[in-house]
Design a protein that fits this description.
The complex is a heterodimer of chains A (about 220) and B (about 375). Chain A has five helices and ten strands; from the N terminus they run E-E-E-H-E-H-E-H-E-E-E-E-H-E-H. Chain A has about 220 residues and is an alpha/beta fold. Chain B is an alpha/beta fold and about 375 residues long. In chain B, the strands form two sheets. Chain B has a five-stranded mixed β-sheet with strand order 3-2-1-4-5, with helices on both faces. A five-stranded mixed β-sheet of chain B has the order 8-7-6-9-10, sandwiched between helices. Classes of the chains: A alpha/beta (about 220), B alpha/beta (about 375). Bound molecules: zinc ion. The site of zinc ion has 7 residues of chain B, from helix 4.
């Protein structure tokens, strides 16, 4: 099975993963910054396919991170995934973006059995979720995703760039202090979960915040 | 300049998402095949204006259904399309992002060339669609001349997002901004004043309707940027000869309402609506016609959602006729934001041999009209 995975909940990233490949990696890319999604995502996917000598017809499933993440960037990946799936007529699923980091934690040597993944939610807040590891299973989501202040997180090791931003108030794991969700891990997680017969999400974005729109109050005096 | 093979009547798909309408249009050369629009307008009503984040969320969910519907209406398949065009600016940054990313994904998935299009110039592009094929009814600027534009063409664009007067020497590579609003767009001023008067959203239709029952001469509201220091003369134009400003007018209406209230009198809402509308329409049309006369423009296209306003149409027609300018007003469905206008301009770019934009461009919320395509 060949999966095209996309995640733009923080950086812009895409990956091709397949159960036929070593470590299931066919190819991937991820930007360093979090503000160039519109420019780099589509050309990146085009190059990814070309580099692997593949076309849309070879893709079996498309998955996209559905956040949480800053809205404008997040939508760029979801609309890209939806459009590709429409044209190529491929099954389309969503995954919670924090799962990407959770899988990397599970594969690291000193993973805690109970841990938090956190990313930058801006406005001095983090997006976070709590996971559990049991044996060699995939990480299990216990709670979340949520958005809130880092200081209010449960007292557990915290992995991801959201922890690195607030090392004074959370138990940040240094090796993961700059880690962002990326499509490669997300695609690997999707592959494993599909192989295990698990359900994935649809592509509804997890905004976690309202649009900030205010219903106008009484008229202000102009005089 | 890098040129691309020409095609006489290319099949072009256009995508629009710069404000609160998700539009997908399809044209074959200058023939309109489909114009499907999904609007999030209803979701903005309780806020009294377009909320960018709400518009962006709506674009995300409307895009694929709108695309599917447009393809069905045009009875074409994506495979048949020769090129894709998308609004890359100006507009709301987050809203533009959805359409641009969708268009790029379509381009990657189909391998079709992609054109990044200027929204304002696209409003002019609808004037090039054939009459009787969904284009302008009364001939339009393109009538009788294939798809060539008339010489001395201008466009007056009035909407909730913009107020501009343009000169178009070539729709594919020579468009000049003669004047524009320096603060609110005219439609935005309508929305704000409608809120002041308790008339609801969108303000344009509500004020237009009520104004018919009011006396426009009962109150005189200011016409922004009309003092000599801004206007100058034809020989020595002032800094804002063809520009508009509506924020002072909005404040004047607020003061007026409060003065009635302070005196304990009933607010003459219909008169205020009529006088406000007259102030807007008077200054828009007088400056637009002045710009046309002094720039030798003899054909004017009216575009943007406020083209639906009855008084604006009436006074524009009257003043154009008096100045010997031929006015074209496309059907309203082509005046408001839509994908057909993007497709129409895209087709012109393909036919002119303009090179596609590629996949690397970024949406530009303040894209100047001098950039017809990115
Ligand atoms: Zn517009």
């Amino acid at each position: 099975m060949l999966i095209l995975a996309i995640d733009t909940s923080a950086v812009a990233s895409a990956a091709l993963v397949s159960d036929d490949s070593l470590e299931s990696v066919v190819g991937s890319f991820a930007t360093a910054d979090t503000r160039s999604h519109a420019e780099v995502l589509a050309p990146g996917i085009e190059q990814l396919l070309a580099g692997a000598g593949l076309s849309g017809a070879d893709v079996d499933v498309i998955v996209t991170g559905v956040g949480p993440g800053p809205f404008t960037g997040l939508r760029s990946g979801i609309v890209t995934a939806r459009s590709l799936a429409f044209v190529w007529q491929k099954p389309l699923y969503g995954l919670m973006s924090l799962d990407a980091i959770a899988l990397e934690v599970a594969e690291s040597t000193e993973a805690a059995a109970d841990f938090i993944v956190a990313t930058d939610a801006r406005r001095k807040e983090v997006y976070w979720a709590r996971y559990a590891l049991a044996g060699s299973q995939l990480p299990q989501l216990l709670d979340g995703p949520h958005v809130g202040f880092a200081a209010d997180l449960p007292d557990l090791p915290v992995y991801g760039a959201g922890a690195g931003l607030y090392p004074d108030v959370v138990n940040a794991v240094p090796e993961f202090a700059a880690r962002q969700p990326e499509a490669l891990s997300l695609g690997q997680f999707a592959l494993a979960r599909l192989a295990a017969g698990e359900q994935l999400l649809d592509t509804t974005p997890l905004y976690l915040r309202e649009s900030d729109a205010q219903v106008p109050g009484p008229r202000k005096r102009a005089l | 300049m890098n040129h691309h093979p020409r095609s006489s009547a290319p099949l072009v798909l256009g995508i629009e998402s710069s404000c609160d309408e998700t539009g997908v249009g399809i044209v074959r050369g200058t023939r309109l095949l489909a114009n499907t629009v999904s609007s999030s307008m209803e979701e903005h009503v309780r806020f009294g204006g377009v909320i960018p984040e709400i518009a962006s969320r709506a674009h995300l969910d409307a895009f694929v259904p709108t695309l599917r519907e447009a393809l069905a209406a045009a009875e074409v398949r994506l495979d048949d399309i020769d090129a894709i065009a998308v609004t890359s600016g100006p507009g709301l940054a987050g809203a533009l992002m959805v359409g641009v990313c969708a268009a790029k994904a379509l381009a990657v998935a189909t391998g079709k060339p992609l054109y990044a299009i200027n929204h304002l110039v696209a409003h002019v592009g609808v004037g090039l669609l054939e009459p009787g094929a969904g284009g302008p009814v009364d001939g339009g600027p393109a009538a009788g001349s294939g798809n060539a534009l008339p010489e001395n063409l201008g466009a007056l664009l009035v909407s909730g997002g913009h107020t501009e007067i343009l000169r178009i020497r070539s729709i594919t590579d020579d468009v000049e901004l003669l004047g524009s609003t320096i603060d609110d767009a005219a439609g935005e001023a309508y929305d704000k004043v409608a809120r002041l008067l308790g008339l609801g959203y969108p303000g344009g239709p509500a004020i237009d309707k009520l104004a018919r029952t009011g006396n426009a001469k009962a109150i005189r509201f200011p016409r922004g940027l009309t003092q000599p220091k801004y206007m100058g003369t034809a020989e020595e134009p002032g800094p804002h000869r063809y520009d508009w400003s509506f924020s002072g007018l909005k404040t004047a209406v607020a003061r007026c309402v409060e003065q009635f209230e302070a005196r304990g009198e009933a607010v003459p809402v219909a008169d205020i609506a009529a006088a406000f509308q007259e102030a807007v329409v008077d200054v828009i049309t007088s400056k637009a016609v002045l710009a046309c006369r002094e720039s030798g423009i003899t054909e004017l296209l009216l575009g943007g959602g406020v083209a639906a306003n009855s008084r604006l149409r009436q006074l524009t027609e009257q003043r154009c006729t008096a100045a010997g300018i031929r006015l074209t007003v496309p059907p309203l469905s082509l005046c408001t934001d839509n994908g057909a206008m993007v497709a129409a301009l895209g087709a012109q770019l393909v036919m002119s041999g303009t090179a596609p934009s590629g996949l690397g461009f970024a949406p530009d919320s303040s894209m100047p009209v001098t950039s017809v395509s990115a």
